[in-house]
Structure formats: structure tokens, C-alpha cells
DNA sequence: AATTCGATCAACCGCTTAACT
DNA sequence: AAGTTAAGCGGTTGATCGAAT
């Protein structure tokens, strides 16, 4: 037995909103507010719409100061960085972008940014394949991608792909997990020997390359950064780590806009947190606008479990 | 000019969470 | 403490439009 419907689907109107409906909803909310009850709202106005539909229409379209389209390079960078860090938590990501809605950010990511990033990756992989055709071993990335296609959830796979993409940029030899330039938290995470994640620590062995990557460490460190920021236990990073984050953002920009375009980008990262950039380390308890670094361990564990199930860790 | 295809985005669906009784 | 209800959220769908053939 399913959940009871929130409204009478037989009498409720569905589909695109007419300008008249928009005006009715907008006028009413501007005059009376929502009244804290979206379900009752359409009845008060005389709209044959579901309360959830009204709420969505208001939040995503009618609300004042909504911006549509024309995402700036700064916004691109923020979206990508946050997506890699926290995944598809669109409401949190959108909260960092004034005037943007979660739906907008989600659509923008799915239709443009993701393709831009992963597309570039594909191009480069193809290029790598060509240049490495003479060698018998494939790159670790390709192995992982092939395996990932088997079972890894799309979201987790995307995140791992993007993480690895950045790693490759920083360290083409593949030892990125030890390179704090990519993930400032990695080295720190490794020192937190008594944190709960260590009980699950595993290693992905890339035998052909004689290298190993601890994806657990990698993924967990990402959220350890957040957890540390939230509980104040580790405080702010060193200036060196701050510059590492900036370095990561710079790599994102390169992926998004390509070489040669970075200098022309307004507010380009060139050595400091500038206006329009995310002040990554300001999300402490008091200032965090939406608790954006409150990683749920189960969420990231799920990603990790996805990963371990694929690679038989 | 007609058709096909892919991209975009508004809107819906259903699950989770939080507030309330 | 348990049950109920609505809000919030992310995934998905489907209509629309423009480009390509």
C-alpha cells in the first residue's frame, strides 16, 4: 500500500502553468505569504493545482530575485567543486549561488557542466589511448572506468571520474592519493588513525601499474574536511592547504574553459580567494549558511560501498 | 519542406525528514 | 513513543525547440 496522495489527482490541473495562474499565485503570496501551508494555498486562491506544484512554481520561477540561465564561470566553478565534494545535494549547492534554484543548478549540471567535464575527459582518454596504443597495459583510470560501468551508480561514478580527472592533472603518474595538492585532506585523513572510517579502510590495487590507490581514504578525506570544518575539531587549514584548494579550483577552470581562457575569466583564481569565489574554510559552525559540510557518513559510505562492491575490495 | 534527433528545462513523482499531535 | 502530515529534496519524465539531415 502506497502513500496517500497529497491531493485529488482527478481534479487537480497538471502541466505547464498559464500566465494567469502565475499572476494569481504571485499576487496572493506577495500579499498574504504562504501561510505556512502549501496544501491549503491553492484552495484559498482558487487554483486547481496541487500544493506541491504551487510551492515548486513559486520557489523555482515566481519568487523574487530568481536568476535564469547565463551561469557565470564563478558559478560553474562553485557547482563543480561542490558536486565533487558533496555530490548531488542540489539544494546545498544552490544555496551558495544567490538567485539560483536547486532545480536550475541540477538541470544546468546534467545538461551542460557534466558533459563539458566528462566530455573533455573522454577526448583526453581517447588521445591517451592513441598515444599509448603500443603499450599493453591500460591506464588505471580506464580500468576503473570499465569496471565502474558494470555496477557503480552513475552519481558515484561521475564523482570518482571527476576526482580522478583532477588527480591526473596534478599527477599523471597516478600517485595522487598521496599528493595533498589535489585533496588537501588526504594526508590529514591518513593521520586520523582512530577515526571511524579507518575500520573500513581498503585499498584498490592496480597491479598492472604496481600502484595502489586508497579510494576509501580519498573519498573519506573529502568528507573529513567537511566534518572537521563543521565540528571545529581541526579548525582552518594552513595557508599551504588553502592554496591547494585554489589549485584544485584552477584545474576545474581549466577543465571547464580550457587552457588559454582562464586569464580572461573574471575573478580568475590566481593566488587568493577573490570576490565571487567560495571561501571554502568559512563554513564553520556559526557561519555555515546551510550546514553544507554536514556529510552524512552513510551517504559517503554508500558511495564507498558502491566502489568496493565493484572492485571486490 | 518534412522529418529526425538531441538539448533544454519545467514540472511531476515519490522518498525522506521534520514538525506536530 | 508512536503515528500522522506536510515540507523539502533529488531523480526522472515529457514537452518544446532548434539544428541537422
How do the strands and helices of this protein lay out in sequence?
Layout (H helix, E strand, L loop, with lengths): L18 H14 L8 H5 L5 H12 L10 H14 L3 H6 L6 H30 L8 H12 L2 H17 L13 H8 L12 E3 L4 E3 L1 H17 L7 H19 L39 H15 L2
Helix pairs in contact: 4-11, 6-8, 7-8, 7-12, 9-10, 10-12
This protein binds a DNA duplex (21 and 21 nucleotides) through helix 3 and helix 6.
Shape: elongated
Q: Could you tell me the radius of gyration in angstroms? A: 22 Å
Give the helix level as a range of percent. 40-55%
How would a crystallographer describe the biggest sheet?
2 strands, antiparallel
Strand proportion, as a percent range, falls in under 5%
- Rounded to the nearest angstrom, the distance between the terminal CA atoms is 38 Å
* Helix/sheet category: mainly alpha
Number of helices: 12
**Mean pLDDT score, rounded?**
58
Q: Looking across the biggest beta sheet, what order are the strands in?
A: 1-2
Strand element count? 2
Amino acid at each position: 500500500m502506497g502513500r496517500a496522495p497529497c491531493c485529488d489527482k482527478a481534479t487537480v490541473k497538471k502541466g505547464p502553468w498559464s500566465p494567469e495562474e502565475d499572476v494569481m499565485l504571485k499576487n496572493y503570496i506577495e500579499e498574504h505569504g504562504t501561510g505556512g501551508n502549501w496544501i491549503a494555498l491553492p484552495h484559498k486562491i482558487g487554483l486547481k493545482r496541487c500544493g506541491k506544484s504551487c510551492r515548486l512554481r513559486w520557489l523555482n520561477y515566481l519568487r523574487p530575485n530568481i536568476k535564469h540561465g547565463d551561469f557565470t564561470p564563478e558559478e560553474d566553478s562553485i557547482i563543480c567543486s561542490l558536486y565533487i565534494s558533496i555530490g548531488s545535494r542540489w539544494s546545498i549547492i544552490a544555496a551558495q549561488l544567490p538567485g539560483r534554484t536547486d532545480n536550475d543548478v541540477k538541470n544546468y549540471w546534467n545538461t551542460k557542466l557534466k558533459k563539458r567535464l566528462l566530455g573533455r575527459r573522454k577526448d583526453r582518454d581517447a588521445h591517451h589511448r592513441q598515444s599509448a596504443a603500443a603499450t599493453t597495459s591500460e591506464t588505471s583510470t580506464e580500468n576503473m572506468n570499465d569496471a565502474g560501468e558494470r555496477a557503480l551508480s552513475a552519481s558515484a561514478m561521475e564523482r570518482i571520474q571527476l576526482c580522478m580527472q583532477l588527480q591526473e592533472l596534478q599527477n599523471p603518474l597516478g600517485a595522487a592519493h598521496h599528493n595533498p595538492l589535489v585533496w588537501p585532506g588526504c594526508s590529514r585523513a591518513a593521520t586520523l588513525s582512530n577515526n571511524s572510517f579507518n575500520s573500513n579502510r581498503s585499498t584498490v590495487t592496480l597491479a598492472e601499474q604496481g600502484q595502489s590507490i586508497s579510494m576509501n581514504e580519498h573519498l573519506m578525506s573529502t568528507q573529513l574536511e567537511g566534518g572537521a570544518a563543521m565540528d571545529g575539531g581541526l579548525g582552518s587549514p594552513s595557508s599551504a592547504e588553502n592554496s591547494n584548494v585554489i589549485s584544485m579550483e584552477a584545474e576545474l577552470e581549466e577543465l571547464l574553459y580550457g587552457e588559454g581562457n582562464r586569464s580572461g575569466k573574471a575573478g580568475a583564481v590566481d593566488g587568493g580567494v577573490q570576490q565571487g569565489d567560495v571561501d571554502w574554510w568559512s563554513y564553520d559552525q556559526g557561519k555555515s549558511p546551510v550546514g553544507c559540510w554536514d556529510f552524512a557518513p552513510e551517504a559517503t559510505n554508500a558511495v564507498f560501498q558502491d566502489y568496493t562492491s565493484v572492485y571486490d575490495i
